[in-house]
Please model this.
Amino acid sequence: MVIALLALLAGAAAWTFAEYMLHRFAGHAARGRIHFSREHLRHHGTPGYFSPAWQKALSALVMIPVAGSVGWLVVGFAAGVAFGAGFGLAYLGYEWVHWRIHVAPPRGPFSRWARKHHLYHHFGDPEANHGVVTGVWDRVFGTYVPVGQVVVPRRRVLPWMLDESGTLRPELAADYRVADARMARA
Ligand SMILES: [Zn+2]
Ligand SMILES: [Zn+2]
Model:
């Protein structure tokens, strides 16, 4: 039981590593030469664009059994299944967190941090802050940028940042600043 639990946690940790590597290298370093990279750059270029659910489901159907098989080879069948399950659950968690970052305002310390961390990657520096659910691998690989305030180009502002009159919600003013195209670096 303890082994299975440890394997589950290890699987989840392995996903966060895969998330960092896929995003940094297959997403950005590939510079549009592979499908994943083209999809990811479209996510950067088009506000609100996410790859179709069937593509994500297909990736999950490949990645999760691969993770489970690696686990099976290393720690045996039962723990390997738990490893694959941890990997898969963390992957689903990542999809949820990433989607919420783009569509919903922060509700607590983690969601506030995750939005600033990821939206700085979008609007500040796409070479920084590749991790979405954790900053651990960015720290390990030297791409972590602590974010004070994110400067958001006006044409890219996310709907949750604005109030009914179309101005930045006052409670977000410490974390975000909306800039006109000329002023924003992104
Ligand atoms: Zn994103
Ligand atoms: Zn990116």
Q: What stands out?
A: The pocket of zinc ion (ligand 2) is lined by residues 23, 27-28, 40, 44, 121, 126 (CB under 6 Å). The chain is about 60% helix and 5% strand. Residues 1-104 form one domain. The longest helix spans residues 2-29.
